[in-house]
Amino acid sequence: MKMFDFAQPATLDEAIGAWEPGAAWLGGGTNLVDLMKTGAVQPAKLIDISRLPGLAGIDELDDGATRIGALVRNADLAGDPAFAGRYPMVAEALLSGASGQLRNAATVAGNLMQYPRDAYFPGPEPDPMADASSLSVLGAGGEPVTVHPSDFCVPLVALDAVVEILGPDGPREIALADLYQPGEPRTTLIPGELVTALRLPAAAAEFRANCRYLKVRDRTSFAFAMASAAASLRMDGPHIAEARLSLGAVAPKPWRVAEAEALLKGQAPGADLFARAADAAMAGAQPVGGNGWKIELARRTAARALAMAAAGTPADMPALPASPFGNQTGDLAHV
Amino acid sequence: MSEPMSEPMSDVLDRSIRFGSNAGQPLTRRDGIAKVTGTATFAADNLPDGLLHAVYLPATIARGRVTKLDVDAARAHPGVVAVYTPENRPPLQGDPDDKPTMFSFRIEVLQDDTVRYAGQPIALVLGETLEAATEGARLLNPDYDMQTPRTGLDDGDPFDVEPGGFGRPAGTTHGDIDAGHAAAAKAIDVTYRTASQYHNAMETHAIVAQWDGDQLLLDVPTQALNMTCAAYAYFFGIPVENVTVRSPYLGGGFGSKAIPVGPSVLAILAARASGRPVKLMLTRQQMFGPVAHRGATRQRLRLGIGDDAALTVLDHDSLSETSTFDDFHEPAANASQGLYAAGAIRSSHRGVRLDIGTPGPMRAPGEASGAAALECAMDEMAEAAGMDPLEFRLKNYAETEPGTGKPYSSKALRDCYLQGAERFGWAGRPMAPRQMQDEDGLLTGWGMGTALFPAPMFAAEARATLRADGSALVETSAADMGQGSWTSLAQIAADSLGLSMDQLEFHAGHSSLPDGGVAGGSGHTATAGGALHAAGRDTIRQLGELAAGDPASPLYGAGNASLVAQHGRLFVEGDPGRGESFTDILSRAGVPELIGSGKAARPPEAGQRHAMYSHGAVFAEVKVDPELCQMRVSRLVGAFAAGRIINPKLAESQLMGGMIWGIGFALHEEAKHDPRTGRILNADFAGYHVPVNADVCGLEVVTVHEDDPFVNPLGIKGVGEIGIVGTVGAIGNAIRHATGHRIRRFPIRIEDLLTA
């Protein structure tokens, strides 16, 4: 492992002051330390923010929004009854990611910042002839670009999550959807900026009765998605007053599909409608290498997630969250 | 004796162990607490004073030459002690291309700058810390002259495998193949592919090497301690008795730890050159390269049946990958020998040379991948015949070994079929595919596969010392690679001495002990157990002689042949009152201890007289989402007949482990190569998937009673590998039954069903 400096600031301001080019923030370490061990990333300095005060709260704000500190652990957020009650789809996505051990250590902000992981990382450039299963079919113009691997971020972009940021020039905030950009750097963060919190607006809780996250993968747990979808419906009697739909594992960033949302609005839920919405969601998709199947899989995943959302959010977290097999009896809950 | 080996050994001691009080009990593994509390010392836990850490740099291309290494940068890094490249690698006394043991392959130990596969060691860095050595290796920053790698089965010209020893399977033909094809009223001609798979024991390969003059002490996990001594003694030009191997615990072996490997030789070399102890432990990523793997295969099966659904021909050809510099061919087609009563049977093996590490033995080499294809082909043939898969297999049941006509030493396969089917609930299975859905709308399918695995024995020795206090010490170098042999072998030893487990001290896992042979080939319990049994028997024979010759003993004058040792007493069979305790016999004789020795091996004529196999039948239920195509094995029932079961709990655990690996083979495991560089893209557990707990549900093992008087005196076959055999095909057949899609490659993936 390359030698590096290690700083452990006591306050947020000290942390911002400690940054220098080549430094990296250390939160839960589940992604960064792993990549340092393989030599994939080699920061000159680690700034340990894991002990900073005031970044580990889950707070309901006066305007009904929920503010999640950057250092809240994924498992703690998913297990928070108030949070899971307001945003069950987010909890389901969190619990479908990684493993119990990783969720206990991984932080919310680290999840937003995780590196894309395909077989090629950290290089060479992906070769679609070898393995295109983790290459984007949306938002990459047919180029071999690795998909964003997060589950958590998929429902977040659908729910208009906002990222709070602190940097040398002070605080600012942006929509999560605007955090990611093509190419390098992968995010719109300015070097030296730190994600301090994540905010879900009050309106995001209005979908709680009809929202699901669905993740398709080639084993039942502890695997990245091959396709995933977060579907939310706000019902007005028999009609969909408002819909949110976003897709995971199909694009370089968590992929929200406004066209599908517009198509669903005001309609009565049904298989035909959901199929058309899923078609609309994938309308611009382009295969790369041999991964045309991924387009069809994402389409079916979106349609199914919408149908599951229409059926209503389950009262309890399924034994296998976000899994097509989650409703089977006899499964061990792996929460 | 006219038939010395074909009859069951019938002296009293054998009877005592066959019905002993320890064997047959589901004892909990004796090393369990040590392992879960971290007190068990694995090889890499040894940290002798002055230890240096070795890290090798693996090639990131598969074919070409190393043109530059920044040795100066590596040497300049703080904590780096030495850097070895082909230019300064100290000499070896034995040629690394030689094969000093029967389970040896050519190894790469910095002979030259050629790169023959990705993951090959191209330099070694010694450091005061692991971190320093790791960074030193990274700083070497190699340049290559790269050639186009060949990593797929179509990238080379197939050649006929030349039979000859381990990894060069002979092709076999029984009967008239052409006539068999011609006689077929119905026939299939199908091709199945299996993926390249890498052993990934929880404990990666590790070694701590210490020299003292020309004495070499190795802490290294090995399935074959004495063979390991012989191999490394050869490479370093020292007498085999100068090498001591300690291997008390293994975190899994699966065949990979049965062979000498290049990284271990480099570590020993570095220890000799530096004059300090050296530790080298492979990273998970490094497991994908120099320590063998299961080679990919493409298997063509041509089956024909007559009007009566009897197989007229079973014609199995396997194309397998091997390296450019050595031969290990997955003997997949051999899976079609010995199982079904076809009129004519042919197994043939062809190879392709690729820029990969040499494959090697990996749990059920040949049987696992061969049965995957064969059992699916059998279902395809059954479907063509319009028969239930089980009925079709029973129709073609072999009462004697096909081709040779030899009787089986025992074969309870019919019971396996029937008991497995009963437990699974096979009856009522709809014949046509895609007929069953569960309450959640998931497609449900049932499939089955037959399991067959040879019941070999190797050679082993053991020693049993009965002490004056009535306790005993038994010793053999046998390895426990995690399967629990430290417990089951002790059960055999205790019964052979007529003692309880708590009176028995069992030493194993050290090369100074009598040679315990190889923990491999599913023959370990039979072989090492046989040696321990013989040693105990020899000790008790001596004890009997003492007593029978002592006028003060109630056993005075009793013939040794009628004596029984049980519960620390020796008595006359049928007259338990006439006897006395071991301690009484020894104390009166003034003998502090009695030392017996024993050996075990199967006489060749025994194997010529009988065909010896373990058998099984595996039944699988899968659930498949009809739209998303995600698959899950929801139930798996395996019924196995494997001779006498010494420890039912451990045997069941072994069989379950094999079946779980079958899930991995069927649905998950596949190493993928980058076509540009040839390196393995998914060389870690994020990319190379094995089943997780959530993939394993409804697992059941049935052990079918089987008495085998011929296989060895203890009636033991083996359970180490057969669990994986049959399971893969059962899952493939269940997916076909659930979905109507016949996927002819493993692993079967979501995209296969999506595009089917």
Task: Write a brief caption for the model.
The complex is a heterodimer of chains A (335) and B (756). The longest helix of chain A has 20 residues, at 292-311.
End-to-end distance of chain A: 33 Å
| Major pleated sheet of chain A | 5 strands, antiparallel
> Which pair of chains has the greatest number of interface residues, and how are they split between the two chains?
A-B, 43 and 41 residues
Strand order of the largest sheet of chain A: 4-5-8-6-7
Q: Assign the CATH class of the largest domain in chain A.
A: Alpha Beta
Tell me the strand order in the biggest sheet of chain B.
Answer: 3-5-1-13-10-11-12
Shape of chain A: globular
Key features?
heterodimer, A: 335 residues, alpha+beta, Uridine Diphospho-n-acetylenolpyruvylglucosamine Reductase, domain 2, Uridine Diphospho-n-acetylenolpyruvylglucosamine Reductase, domain 3, 4-stranded antiparallel sheet, 12 strands, 27% helix, 19% strand, disordered C terminus, B: 756 residues, Aldehyde Oxidoreductase, domain 4, Aldehyde Oxidoreductase, domain 3, 3 domains, 7-stranded mixed sheet, 17 helices, 25% helix, disordered N terminus
How would you describe what is shown here?
The complex is a heterodimer of chains A (335) and B (756). By secondary structure, chain A is of the alpha+beta class. Chain A folds into two domains: 1-53, Uridine Diphospho-n-acetylenolpyruvylglucosamine Reductase, domain 2, CATH 3.30.43; 57-319, Uridine Diphospho-n-acetylenolpyruvylglucosamine Reductase, domain 3, CATH 3.30.465.10. Chain A has eleven helices and twelve strands. In chain A, strands 4-5-8-6-7 form a five-stranded antiparallel sheet, with no helix packed on it. In chain A, α9 packs antiparallel against α10 (271-281) and α10 packs across α11 (292-311). Chain A is globular and about 60 Å long. Chain B is an alpha+beta fold and 756 residues long. Chain B has three domains: 12-40 and 458-601, Aldehyde Oxidoreductase, domain 4, CATH 3.30.365.10; 43-148 and 218-239 and 254-277, Aldehyde oxidase/xanthine dehydrogenase, a/b hammerhead (Aldehyde Oxidoreductase, domain 3, Alpha-Beta Complex); 367-396 and 405-456 and 604-672 and 694-756, Aldehyde oxidase/xanthine dehydrogenase, molybdopterin binding domain (Aldehyde Oxidoreductase, domain 4, 2-Layer Sandwich). Chain B is 25% helix and 24% strand. Chain B is built from 17 helices and 29 strands. Chain B has a seven-stranded mixed sheet with strand order 3-5-1-13-10-11-12, with helices on both faces. In chain B, strands 7, 8, 9, 14, 15, 16 and 29 form a seven-stranded mixed sheet that branches. In chain B, a hairpin with a 2-residue loop joins β23 and β24 (575-581). In chain B, α8 runs parallel beside α16 (727-739), α11 packs parallel to α12 (524-548) and α15 crosses α16 (727-739). Classes of the chains: A alpha+beta (335), B alpha+beta (756). At the A-B interface, α11 of A face α4 and α17 of B.
